[in-house]
Every structure is written in structure tokens, then in C-alpha cells.
Specification:
Blueprint (H helix, E strand, L loop, with lengths): L15 E2 L1 E6 L5 E6 L2 E5 L4 E7 L3 H9 L1 E6 L5 H7 L9 H5 L3 E2 L8 E2 L4 E13 L2 E13 L4 E2 L2 E2 L7 E5 L2 E4 L10
Antiparallel strand pairs: 1-13, 2-3, 2-6, 4-5, 5-10, 6-9, 7-8, 9-10, 11-12, 13-14
The structure holds flavin mononucleotide.
Flavin mononucleotide (FMN) binds next to strand 3, strand 5 and helix 1.
GO molecular function: FMN binding
Cofactor: FMN
InterPro entries: Flavin_Rdtase-like_dom, Flavoredoxin, Split_barrel_FMN-bd
């Protein structure tokens, strides 16, 4: 039996892969924030979209610098990910506060997050207000990842356990790999 659901719609389209988005403010100071509303939107050219609330410090940083790094955190840094998503770079140095380390990017001034398994360096090519968030469309200009993160052209989830958000303080991670050819 189904009934009209009394739940936030985004919580039914879950779990959502979690990213750490790094950015720089107008003084070049780096910041990092946790985002779950992220997705690829084009393969050629490679484009990603991130939804950033207009109240976030990250929002102003990206509007000013027109770039961001989408970093892939793993379950071993869940505490840091939760913290980066609970405090604002407007008030504190979040790299210092979380213990996460900035690492130089190849193509951007914005650093990536050392502890993450992969980094997509993105230049903003478009943005669109969507309710209380802004969709930033980023063109991926460089891609960096741990060599052991990839097997057979996909993420090796036996080694790299991504973080996925269910809602609130609840998360999960990837389990088995299922090949639709054998299902
Ligand atoms: C698991 C998780 C997912 C989140 N996803 C988003 C998101 O997709 N978009 C967003 O604007 N904020 C999201 N947030 C909230 C921001 O990370 C949070 O407001 C953060 O403090 C913003 O930091 P800033 O002010 O330094 O930019 C999420 C938080 C958590 C814990």
C-alpha cells in the first residue's frame, strides 16, 4: 500500500553521494563545505552541478572566484564531513577546525582537500537561482584521484567507501557491486 508521504521529497531520493566543496574567498582564504546536492550534468564537455544555499559562505566565495573543487570524501573522515557541514567559514577557519588539509590544485587557485580520494577542479560556466539554493554549473578542467580508487574504469568501492547522506545525521556507504548483465 502507498500513501501520500509526509517526508521531505529529497529524503526519498536518497542516499545522496556527499562531496566536500572547497572554495576561496575574496582574500584568497580557503574554505570547505559539505554538499549532498551534487550531480554530473554533461559528459562532453564534463559538467557538474552543485546546489549551494544562498546563506552559505561558500556561495559568496564561488560567486567571487568563479571556481570550486568537488572533493570525494570517504567514510573514514565522516566526523570531519559532518563538522564541515555544521559550521561556517564565515566564522572559523574550517580547514583548521576540521583538521582537513588544503592541497594545491593543477588548474585552479582553489585548493582541494588532501584527505579526499578524488578531486574535480571546476570553473563556473553558469549559475541559476533555484529557490533558496543556487545551481552552479562547473566545467571540470582537471581530475585527480588516488590510483587505488579505480578498478575496471569505475570507483573501487571495496577500497574507497564513499559517504552517502540519508538525512539529518544519518549516512550510509556503498555495499556490493551489482552487474545488471547478471541480475
Ligand atoms: C551531509 C550534509 C549535506 C549537505 N548538503 C548541502 C547542500 O547540498 N547544499 C548546501 O547548500 N548545504 C548543504 N549542507 C549544509 C552546509 O554544508 C552547511 O550549511 C555549511 O555550514 C556551509 O558552510 P559555509 O558557510 O562555510 O559555506 C549539507 C550539510 C551536511 C552535513
Amino acid at each position: 500500500m502507498k500513501m501520500e508521504a509526509n517526508i521531505k521529497p529529497n529524503r526519498l531520493f536518497a542516499p545522496q553521494l556527499v562531496g566536500l566543496v572547497s572554495s576561496i574567498d575574496k582574500n584568497g582564504r580557503p574554505n570547505v563545505a559539505t554538499l549532498a546536492w551534487i550531480t554530473s550534468v554533461s559528459a562532453d564537455p564534463p559538467l557538474v552541478s552543485i546546489a549551494v544555499g544562498s546563506t552559505r559562505y561558500t556561495h559568496g566565495c564561488i560567486i567571487h572566484s568563479k571556481e570550486f573543487v568537488l572533493n570525494l570524501p570517504t567514510i573514514d573522515i565522516l566526523k570531519e564531513v559532518q563538522l564541515a557541514g555544521s559550521i561556517s567559514g564565515r566564522d572559523v577557519d574550517k580547514f583548521k577546525e576540521t583538521g582537513l588539509t588544503p592541497v594545491s590544485s593543477i588548474a585552479l587557485k582553489t585548493p582541494g582537500v588532501e584527505q579526499c580520494a578524488a578531486h574535480l577542479e571546476c570553473k563556473v560556466i553558469d549559475m541559476k537561482e533555484a529557490g533558496d539554493h543556487t545551481l552552479f554549473i562547473g566545467k571540470v578542467v582537471a581530475t585527480v584521484c588516488n590510483v587505488e580508487a579505480i578498478r575496471d574504469g569505475v570507483l573501487d568501492i571495496s577500497r574507497i567507501k564513499p559517504i552517502m547522506h540519508l538525512g539529518g545525521t544519518l549516512f550510509t556507504t556503498a555495499g556490493e557491486i551489482v552487474d545488471s548483465k547478471n541480475y
